[in-house]
Design a protein that fits this description.
Strand content: over 45%
Order of helices and strands: EEEEEEEEE
Radius of gyration: 13 Å
CATH class: Mainly Beta
Length: 109
């Protein structure tokens, strides 16, 4: 499977063009794979299996963009708010667009 990009929290998505071997039972045809350089609740080298969509429920772990920068965090959509939160309840400021929900984190042993 081709890596869609590498995420370094708050920096532009880095396109690599690399491919990785992932067992077919953990990946649906429509899902995207991102590799983590640096992001909350992950370790460098983790592979995020992401279901592409533009909406998420409160609390879902998502990949989101703000302009050209990419982020990973928990989506918050209650009481008229739409926020991205990292490290518990720390809110990131700005307008975010959801890229997709993280369905699985594949960690190298």
């Amino acid at each position: 499977m081709r890596i869609h990009g590498e995420i370094d929290q708050g920096k532009p998505l880095f396109k690599t063009g690399e491919s990785v071997l992932i067992p077919s039972e953990v990946l649906e045809d429509h899902e995207l794979v991102y590799r983590v350089r640096r992001a909350p609740e992950t370790e460098p080298g983790d592979l995020l299996i992401v279901e592409p969509r533009v909406v998420a429920a409160t609390g879902e772990f998502v990949v989101a963009t703000r302009g050209k920068t990419a982020f990973v965090g928990h989506w918050w959509a209650k009481h008229g708010r739409q926020e991205l939160r990292e490290h518990g309840h720390e809110t990131l400021t700005g307008e975010f667009h959801i890229v997709g929900a993280v369905n699985l984190i594949v960690r190298r042993q």
